[in-house]
Amino acid sequence: QLHRRGFRCLHGVDGSEGMLERARSTGLYQELRLCVLGREPLPAPAEHYDAVTVVGALGEGQVPTTVLPELLRVTKPGGFLCLTTRSNPSNLRYKAELEAAVGRLEQSGAWQKLLAQEVEHWERATSEEESTQGTGYISGVVYIYQKCPVPSLAEG
């Protein structure tokens, strides 16, 4: 979808070489690197990207919420961060932890929330217990934040 909307310089990371190979096969990425989010720094300099997205990785037993400062580090001031997580029962503890962490960063002035939108049919459920009200789907949330510009030093 990003490519169809004119984004042409896409970089990606994943902790799985197999997933990186799948991504390579699409021909959409200019750079793909092995990186386990939350365990090692992203392979990019500070303030490098106009936008950073994390889709399908922020969840229970996957990427820890402690990754957020690292995502901010590689985003340019004024740049955007798009994060997603599931709202299914087994992910509710993680979702609450994520929302607390993004809230703390917003209160500290690191970024500003532009959107937090529930998506009813985020992905197909793998079990009836995970299905949102018997729909066969799991709901999710899309969060969009804008990194606050670095305040200029007052003269005097």
TrEMBL record:
A molecular function GO annotation: S-adenosylmethionine-dependent methyltransferase activity
**Methyltransferase type domain ranges (all copies):** 4-82
Segments forming a coiled coil: none
InterPro entries per the record?
Answer: Methyltransf_11, SAM-dependent_MTases_sf
Q: What is this protein called?
A: MET27 protein
The gene name on file is Mettl27
